[in-house]
Recover the amino acids of this structure.
């Protein structure tokens, strides 16, 4: 090969290297700026707590701070839509909840997103589900509450974190199992689990079914009385509270809360792999484990692939439940 031809080849290779090098360097430096996790429900609720617990430990592994943004409304749909429309560059994430990512897509046909319109990064935790009343309520057991609903159809009020959330699905499943009709109780929807709990404490409602983490402190302080939990065994933090099966309502075991981390659709597979590995590290982090367990949640990290399969199963559960109960959200 002549020297001029060799020079041209060398020049071309240098140009290619000059083009590829910044891309490679950029990939190696990810993330190069702070990260954003969108919590689609209000401050103090399950999504907010889970997002902040995760944000507190991520800098150990990704060397960048993480900001939590509460973008509330429409039972979690507004925050979810915000992340769906974000750039899939690995800087904006959704703290996904069972209500906004499984029950809402299953029950609202005109929702602006589907259950699988996101990049699945990992399940974070499971949330035991409880039904509770104020401490001095006339209803001392879950059976007494059910009889109170039966004797006063449509009269007893219950608070939820929004229509279509897991807060609503527990009572609806109970009403169906007891053949009480879907309007047996009067639902009062709020913007978050913490608001729903506050409504119960303020005696604006008669009972509330929610994830344990939101109300555990009130139960321990004897401001609320938990009547039942959906865990297979009694939960160690509230050992006096019977399980759904023990109380005679095993159908309620199908209801359980969870948190997950999602990205916008079409995230690069390499970025998804980075997050899968990062969350595996988080799952072994003592700080994160302690913070998660302290609010009554169960650490339960799943891989991106296992998360997609789990969420699909959850969506199908609520889709079938909605069909059976004729629940359609407008």
């Amino acid at each position: 090969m002549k020297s001029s031809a060799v020079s041209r080849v060398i020049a071309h290779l240098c140009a290619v290297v000059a083009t590829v090098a910044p891309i490679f360097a950029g990939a190696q430096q990810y993330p190069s700026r702070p990260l954003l996790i969108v919590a689609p429900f209000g401050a103090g609720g399950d999504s907010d707590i889970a997002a902040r617990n995760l944000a507190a430990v991520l800098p150990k592994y990704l060397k960048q701070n993480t900001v939590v943004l509460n973008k509330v409304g429409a039972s979690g749909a507004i925050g979810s839509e915000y992340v769906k429309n974000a750039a899939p560059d690995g800087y904006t994430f959704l703290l996904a909840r069972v209500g906004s990512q499984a029950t809402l897509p299953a029950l609202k046909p005109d929702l602006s997103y589907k259950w699988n319109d996101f990049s699945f990064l990992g399940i974070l935790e499971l949330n035991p589900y409880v039904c509770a009343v104020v401490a001095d309520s006339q209803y001392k057991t879950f059976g007494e509450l059910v009889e109170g609903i039966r004797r006063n159809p449509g009269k007893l009020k219950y608070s939820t974190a929004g229509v279509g959330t897991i807060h609503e699905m527990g009572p609806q499943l109970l009403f169906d199992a007891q053949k009480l009709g879907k309007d047996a109780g009067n639902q009062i929807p709020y913007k978050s689990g913490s608001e729903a709990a506050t409504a119960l404490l303020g005696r604006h409602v008669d009972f509330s079914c929610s994830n344990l983490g939101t109300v555990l402190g009130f139960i321990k302080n004897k401001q609320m009385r938990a009547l039942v939990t959906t865990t297979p065994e009694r939960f160690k933090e509230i050992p006096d509270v019977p399980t759904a099966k023990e109380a005679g309502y095993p159908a309620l075991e199908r209801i359980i809360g969870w948190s997950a981390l999602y990205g916008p659709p079409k995230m690069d597979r390499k970025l998804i792999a980075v997050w899968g590995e990062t969350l595996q590290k988080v799952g072994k982090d003592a700080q994160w484990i302690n913070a998660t367990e302290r609010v009554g949640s169960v650490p339960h990290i799943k891989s991106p692939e296992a998360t997609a399969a789990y969420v699909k199963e959850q969506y199908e559960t609520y889709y079938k439940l909605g069909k059976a109960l004729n629940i359609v959200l407008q």
Q: What stands out?
A: The CA atoms of residues 246 and 265 lie 42 Å apart. The chain has twelve helices and eleven strands.
